[in-house]
Design a protein that fits this description.
The chain has 7 helices and 8 strands, in the order H-H-E-H-E-E-H-E-E-E-E-E-H-H-H. It is α+β, with helices and mostly antiparallel strands. It has 2 domains: 82 residues; 190 residues, BirA Bifunctional Protein, domain 2 (2-Layer Sandwich). Strands 1, 2, 3, 4, 5, 6, 7 and 8 form an 8-stranded mixed sheet that branches. Helix 1 runs antiparallel to helix 2 and helix 1 runs parallel beside helix 6.
Length: 275
């Protein structure tokens, strides 16, 4: 056997490994989406069964003092799982600006705005967010309902949720948080978050702008450097994979609100804080 033959086999083997690894990640995302779809299907069945029972035996069903609360909760969960609509644009000034416009002028409540390019992307304190083409720019928005955590708690919740998304694509990497708005991989910035609160007709909405470096990163003029997913992993996730994972992560958070514990999020945040 010649040396060239050995090298070709080793390269092929390595490619197969990467391909298998990528397939596992894609399967993981699809599994999460399948769980959401299964939840929707199950809730639809349960609500339909309850509606049939109400027609047949109304008095007996409503005699349960917890019935209406439980029934309403199922409907709210179903509505939530089906509400996050995706709005895609080639170019915008800022995805947060588009989200604000959708809320104000089109009365949208739950949504996810994605753009290939931001011409006037912004970070915290009015700083300019450098939006290199090929990276990821999205804003997710929703109303702050009475049973949702207050605005200030989302400054901890959002980085924890988004760091889980980053961890999915940068597994085995050291993920840290620099509060209130930066996520780091191996002590280099990979993601920024901009949280904004607006009030429309006495109703509060939270808008979360998320910028993730996928294929390139800007130079940062401070003690921290920047990085990107491709540089860290030699792999490039698709925009759809990232959007699907972000939406499913927030949907899961809202579905599990009954077990929400701010102390748990605060503890995780402290453990992940960049020193």
């Amino acid at each position: 056997m010649e040396k060239r033959d050995v090298i070709e086999k080793e390269v092929t083997k390595g490619n197969n490994k990467r391909s298998y690894h990528d397939q596992k990640k894609l399967k993981s995302i699809n599994n999460k989406l399948s769980k959401v779809e299964a939840q929707i299907h199950q809730l639809e069945i349960e609500i339909k069964d309850i509606d049939v029972e109400l027609e047949i035996n109304y008095d007996a069903i409503v005699s349960n003092p917890l019935f209406f609360d439980e029934y309403q909760k199922k409907k709210e969960n179903l509505n939530l799982l089906m509400k996050f609509k995706i709005f895609k644009f080639e170019s915008v000034t800022s995805t947060n600006d588009v989200a604000i416009n959708l809320i104000k002028k089109e009365q949208k409540e739950f949504g996810c705005v994605y753009a290939g390019i931001q011409t006037k992307g912004r970070g915290t304190y009015g700083r300019k967010w450098i939006s290199n083409k090929g990276n990821f720019f999205v804003s997710i928005f929703f109303p702050l309902k009475n049973n949702y955590p207050p605005f200030n708690e989302f400054s901890i919740i959002n980085p924890i949720i988004i760091s889980g998304v980053i961890k999915h694509f940068c597994e085995k990497k050291n993920i840290k948080l620099k509060f209130p708005n930066d996520i780091f991989v191996n002590r280099r910035k990979i993601c920024g978050i901009l949280q904004e609160l607006i009030t429309i007709n006495s109703k509060k909405f939270l808008i979360i702008g998320i910028g993730i470096n996928i294929v390139s990163n800007p130079k940062i003029n401070n003690k921290y450097q920047a990085t990107n997913i491709l540089l860290e992993t030699k792999k490039k996730p698709t925009i759809k994979e990232i959007i699907d994972l972000i939406i499913s992560s927030y949907e899961k958070f809202f579905i599990d609100l009954n077990s929400y514990n701010y102390g748990h999020f605060k503890k995780r945040a402290n453990l992940m804080a960049l020193n």
